[in-house]
Amino acid sequence: MTRSPLHSRLLASAALLVLSAGFSASALAHNPMCECKAIDAEQIQCTGGFSDGSGAPGVTLDVIGYDETILVPGKLGADSTLTFKKPGSEFYVLFDAGPGHVVEIDQADIQAP
After folding, report:
1. Which is it for strands 70-72 and 32-38: parallel, antiparallel or unpaired?
2. Closest residue by Cα to residue 63 from 79, 44, 80, 48
3. Of 59, 50, 48, 63, nearest in space to 106 by CA
4. Are 98 and 25 in contact (CB under 8 A)?
5. Which residues pair with 75 in a beta bridge?
C-alpha cells in the first residue's frame, strides 16, 4: 500500500507533536529544595522552594520526631520560610510539596548559627 504525500506529512507532524510534548514536560520539571539554618540556640529557620527558582508559599513543612510524632506542624509563609523553636528531642524536617517533591533534613544536617 502506498501512502499519499499528505498522509506522510500528517504522520510526520503527529510524531513531531508527540516528541515536542515530551521535551516541554521535561523542561517544566523542577526539583524541591529546602534548607534549614539555626538562627540561634533556640530558633531554626527553614526556606523551601524549587530548582527553577520559584518559592513554595503554603507548602507543608513539618518537624517530626524520630518516633514519627509531628512535633511542629507547619506551612511555609508568603516568603517561603518557617521559623520554629528547636525541639528538645531528636527530629527531622519534612518539606512535602506532593508526590515526588519531598525533602527530608535531619537535625544533624542543620547549619549552626
Report:
1. unpaired
2. 44
3. 63
4. no
5. 60
Q: What's the predicted TM-score (pTM) here?
A: 0.74
- φ/ψ region of 53 (left if φ > 0, alpha if ψ in -120 to 50, else beta) reads left
Q: 3-class DSSP state for residue 12? A: helix
Residues with Cβ < 8 Å from 60, sequence gap 6 or more? Answer: 74, 75, 94, 95, 96, 97
Residue-level pLDDT at 111:
87
Q: What amino acid is encoded at 92 in this protein?
A: Y
Q: What is the mean pLDDT of the chain?
A: 84
- Do the beta carbons of residue 36 and residue 45 sit within 8 Å? yes
Distance CA 34, CA 4 (A): 55
Separation of alpha carbons 105 and 33, rounded Å: 10
Q: How many CB atoms lie within 10 A of CB 38?
A: 15
